[in-house]
Batch of 3 targets.
Target 1
Amino acid sequence: MRNLITFLLLAFFAVPAMAQAPAIPAGAAKNTLVVLAYHDVRDDVRGNGGDHDPDATSSDKLVAHFDWLRAHHYNVVTLQQVVDASNGGAALPDRPVLLTFDDGLESFYSRVYPLLRAYNYPAVAALVGSWIDMPAGKSMPYNGATCDRHCFLTWDQVKEIQRSGLVEFASHSYDLHHGVNANPQGNQLPAATSAMVTPDGKTYEDEAAYTARIRADLKKSADEIEANTGHRPRAIVWPYGSYNRVATKIAADVGMPVSMSLGDALPSLDPTRTIPRLLVSGNVGAVRLAWLMRHQSRIDPTRAVQVDLDYVYDPDPAQQEKNLSRLLDRIKRLHPSQVWLQAYADPDGDGVADAVYFPNRHLPMRADLYSRVEWQLRTRAGVRVFAWLPVMAFRFPDGSKLPALGPGGPKDTDHYRLAPWDPAVRAKIGDVYEDLARHADAAGILFSDDAYLRDTDNLGPWAQDTAAQRTQRLIDFTNELTERVKRWRPQVLTARNIYARPVVDPAAESWFAQSLPAFNAAYNITAIMAMPQLDKESPTDAWFRRLLKAVTATPGSLDRTLFEVATQDWVHKKPIPTEDIAHRLRLLQAGGARHIGYYPDDFIGDHPKLEVIRPAISASDYPYPLPAR
């Protein structure tokens, strides 16, 4: 049963993230493990992704996949071989592939199991206990259809398959393969990783209650599989691929130390990490599957639009929904690959977080709005969403007790920033980041432009550090915040703003504590604010070319650097003409920029003008998407 969460997964795989490693050429890394995730296998799947079940594979396509694997000398391995290799045992053979099949569907017995025997291919099958135990007469929605007890395996079939020795059964949870209400608006997020909210939208599940719920479910699943097969499952296959470190520890505690998710990256044999799997969807043919297998770790061009959530918020719920609809319609038409979405409230525009848009321990919540908008953007607009937060620019209600870097008064032209060298500051800001991760499924975190240090700041114990040391100290702080987020969102990506001045003039690091090479090494994306007005310079083509040249001078930087242009002239307080914005984006692309974006997007006032900016920022194939193969 997927209902609207199906679209979350489609969005996740339709728009791959900027990966951390370069693409692996075909034929390279012959012992690199590829893990394939299949679901239903039917004889009547409609081609070209037009089936009601986006994850279904036709029987003939599965045969073609198996034939291709055999013809190209891939070795289908067992989970035991993977575990042994990860623990220092025998290395995996060349071109290893692990086959996995999710959901415990009846088609695994009637279509997949005979093929596994014919090819002598081992596999892992993940079972949802509550679906197998579904009572007669009950039905449920499943991927665009209605399923009753007959859609799923029986325990007798499981036992028969178990005796073959070809299939290892894993847990897919007992009853976590569904969504739970995660915000007052009733948006459903994966049950295994989301804090539930009560129907009145006022009370959120705390960590203790969440832990007890997950433990009870996973133990019941493992106990049931062991009782019916004689073998306790050692692998948990997370529903929707959604997991966190808290849940994986619980799974290990109940006897399932092997953890599998979904993800557009190459698996690691590190036994402490969850294994990502390539989702086989859209009824792809063997040629397309081969391409996906050989290009799992790759760098795709990023097209980012940064959005102020303050533009969506309105005290009138009806008006707020209208604002959200306008944003969704616009992003669907623009079709960028990412939206960088403000997660804090900043109605006065000073860049300081006085309140936030998610439940948390320390700051006022203006509205529980972030998870709602993020969910809608993912499921309806098909984009990845990064949560945009300050690093130090927070004003807590008891902020007078916390040291700051500067006075923050009307004469202070810099952001008001708390002192990152203070343990209490670090802990409190870390709590806010972790609370965001508990209550929203952000694909990434954007560390805002407040993360800089001046010589004139109150630097405390950092006062005697060199510029490079201060740069690293701020990187270390953001890494600390990322680790807080990864407790709940282990796959989160990171982006960080950098000013243009230290890129063009590396000596300016002493006035910013920012360095492009250091940022490229630390984050998935370094977002240069390609905004000459911030340096009181004219926005000439020569300025943008000089910036691009400075980035290109650092080998590999173009793969990890995004150029973000402004849509507002903050000096003269007026919008920049859309034609000028589009020209600057094209100029950067023509010079070799791979990743581009702009800020802000005024979806209420249609600026930049949609039809003018769309060709410059859209991630869509032009003029039409390529047909599925």
Target 2
Amino acid sequence: MTKSALQIAREAYQPKLPESLKGSVKIVEGEKTQSVADQTEIAAKFPNTYGLPILTLEKGDKKAYPAIKVGVILSGGQAPGGHNVISGLFDGIKAINSDSKLYGFLGGPSGLTDNEYVELTSDTINEYRNTGGFDIIGSGRTKLEEKEQYDQGLANCKAIGINAIVIIGGDDSNTNACVLAEYYKSINAGVQVIGCPKTIDGDLKNEMIETSFGFDTACKVYSELIGNIQRDANSAKKYWHFIKLMGRSASHIGLECALQTQPNVCIISEEVEQKQQTLDEVVTYIANVVAARAAKGENFGTVLIPEGLIEFIPSLKVLIAELNDTMAANEAAIEKMDSDEEKVEFIVAKLSAELAAIFTSLPKNIQYQLLADRDPHGNVQVSKIETEKMLIEMVDAKLKAMKAQGKYVGKFGAQNHFFGYEGRCAAPSNFDADYCYSLGYTASVLIAEGKTGYMSSVRNTTKPADQWIAGGVPTTMMMNMEKRHGHMKPVIQKALVKLNDAPFKKFASMRDEWAKTTSYVYPGPIQYFGPTEVCDQTTKTLELEQA
């Protein structure tokens, strides 16, 4: 493997650990838990893993553990720090017993069912410490949802001698891990299942999971790019840049990047939904900011847009839900259609008059994108909907109407961007390198202590790493019932931006000033070497939440 100078230097970086994980550890049980909602239904579906206590790891007396064999799976989209979770897990099980072994299932959850795996040795692990990506074993989006999959995975684990599986993933992957843990516990399979919280979107969080790994790094990467664009706009004095950011189900990335860079406009999907705003109201808000800046001779600016915005506009949310159900009910017929126009005509005929009118009012390319293939959950793939281009087109039309009324005197030129893949495999920041290593190491202790149905948890993360609090949170604690593919299923509840919390309140208190003035912040690239206050800083979101 050819390595860059940065990668060579990063190999020497030893991630920091909470004090409780340095040496012998004991588990302290806290209060028993219940799910965040739908307690009766969740308890009935998880009789063996529901109501478990929160666990905290503390310094303990030296204890002998038998050697264990652990399988690890990377599931879903990439996020910076995945390799360090695996490194921490490897070092942890070796510290527990030097004869322990770690196996990586290849290509995601399908590796478990297809029995494709590789033993991860120190030589392999050392090649990937503190690096971005998931390429050590690859990832995948196969869902572990069927009994046949569970049984085949168990047979494969038994053949290898695996005692526990660690699934590194987001809310859907950890939902699958929770179901798997329940099933294996119900049949006394002898295989534990532990999850680790991953997603750059930041929507897997609660009081016990303060942040999902990768969010810190991704936001710093996107904020650097936004800062570069803002400096260009301020230098050239032209172009409005409409920047769509990752975040299908929540606007955490958009909010964090706004706090870091101070753009002229940032739309928060959750606020749009709470205020029941229409698409026209969103467009009018942006157009008014453009016009106000133009009146001062500033025909440039930045607009941040969460990729999931279209699903939070109430009328469009109803439309998309109806489209999902209609397409699911007519899947066979739609698959036989040759053109997008034919699909549109077919779908429009099946919608109510009100929804049909909304659908046909959208630009043609957006109509076609709304009818594209669904994701594995039967939902529209919002990352493929060019919301940023739609808003540019609609803002332009609004400004032309305002100009005709004498309400706009500027010149509107726009550029569109979508920042997604740029942040998913970046070399992890020091925070993510430390946090991920701690998550993996914590998982090793939970396994050694015989726990299952838990997610690895590291808290107190705005303090120095040695003061972090490691432990485990029952995954059932995060569950609720949601409609998937037309049926109610238990899933981990997504964490949305809370409009009453400090991060949004800080943003809301400043956005009018940012809209009027050119007060951009240019964060620059991630710093790995240098003063602690520069290199180990957390996100603005965490700082404000825990202030």
Target 3
Amino acid sequence: MSATFPSLMLEHARQRPTAPALREKVYGIWQTTPWADLALMVRRLACGLHAAGLKRDDHVVIVGENRPRLYASMLAVQALGAVPVPLYQDAAAAEYAFPINNAEVGYAIVEDQEQVDKMLELRAQCPSLARIWYDDPRGLRNYSEAGLEALDALVAAGQSHDASNAQLFDAEVARCQPGDVAAMFFTSGTTGNPKGVVHTHDTLLNRARAGASFDKLTAAEEVLAYMPLAWIGQNIFSYAQWLACGYVVNCPESASTVTIDLKEIGPTYYFAPPRIFESLLTTVMIRMEDAGRLKRWLFDRCMALARRVGPPLMDGKPVGMADRLAYRLGDLLIYGPLRNTLGLSRVRVAYTAGEAIGPDLFTFYRSIGINLKQLYGSTETAVFVCLQPDHEARADTVGVPIEGVEIKVADNGEILVRSPGLLKGYYKNAAATAEVLSADGWYRTGDAGFLAAGGHLKIIDRAKDVGRLHDPQGGPFDGAMFAPKYVENKLKFFPFIKEAVAFGDQREKVCAFLNIDFEAVGNWAERRNLPYAGYTDLAAKPEVLELIKDCVQKVNADLAADTLLAGSQISRFLVLHKELDADDGELTRTRKVRRGAIGDKYKVLVDALYGGKTEQFIETAVKFEDGRSGSVSATLKIVDASTFAPVKAAA
């Protein structure tokens, strides 16, 4: 069925005008926008943009948290045949310069004063940026810059323009075709300038519908939209599938209230990258550390049962009556209240994607009765390539190819994909497009993997990151496979470890940088009356280093049982003196580690790890949240970790 985003919105408004389309929490109260009201808002915004001079194929930057009027603005831009370009709201102003200039953006619609300030700061660098509209007027009363107006003024202008051009909006929507460009997403690549990934209405909606069909989604679903609009995962789940299915999208009041809002909404369809699931689990473990002895004992006993019985129950496998009854009791005492505490008690389908999730983390959620599954895809594939069917969720695979998808593995192990959801191309970058799209329509994913039993796809790591150990002395692990992301995910399962960066390609052993989770380790320290003065001080405490060493050695023991990756055990590590930060160029905006950039920036630390040193002084320039620059320095202790002989598989 061919359609565009605006035409689907109008269809929902015609068929069920009073049904809720969007909800937003304002001053603690949920406000509902029905489909009919949304259609009217989009109409007025589109007419206002037309009056302001927006033309077909123009680009409009959208920046802010999830807000109903920003969603409506995207629809209004698309209704005129123009192209919304969502950007990350937490990016520094300088990071917007390349996308705005690359896409020749003349119009911006932003959320609040913070985003307005960034856009005004960029005007000297971005001469095409003429008009800026803002949704939230707080703090902007005395601003008088040319071309700056409230979104309310745009709506009012649109209402007037619509009154004198009654056929304009409907005619413009009718002109939109499924093959027209619908949106452009700038990748948060780990190297170089971001690339603008161009998608049509058809590519995005085709994959949205395929995913909805796979999981039997309906208009009755409830979704919480809290991830950045600039991330295509958020766009697919709370924009493309929202319009394809007609379910309700709920916008939290702020980033700080997400966990509260999650409990109040109780979504039935939930999507989050692994770091969110890691954060939720860390919160649970911190609370359990503070619980009484009896409660901790009960929790540990019930979780041991859950890890053994929960996944088979979720997968529909036979479980003995005694275990089934014990699990029901555990559900009454522990698992049910835990799901409710997490805000996931009503979840029917939950997905994680964006990067690999640690197997222990994945198993934890399925153990307590949450139907957490993995999917595989990327910005270039409109997300949905492989999904895990119910009863076939596995920690070590990312699912089976869904409707319309073909997969093959190249001779070098790279995954190739052919799908109706592939990008139209990279904007103004034919060379990069030719690198990833073959003449016969295959997309080179850059991921290394293979098709396992039952047609499930197994991803090892990014193809360019998979390496080999090289021991000049010809040790037992010389030539062994090294998959850094796999090792990093195992480390991050522990609530005390927030980030990990593993090194080892073409080296004789694996070493790692670690970030502690400040909240979890701080809580641990306070219970032991261990004083500290901030992150740098806490990270350097001998007691904390011993705590982290224990986590590393548990990972090593686990890796020793893995035939392929036993050589990836961590021989030496250090805990960094600062948290890795996107503002410092160490993470992408989707919090993927920029391993190459980190290796270059902290070369002195890498050399110290491999040079046998026991400590190393480092001073690092940092950017603070208020825009100021400064530095942080420390002498970091380097810790040797125990490694284990590979465990031979039973004959």
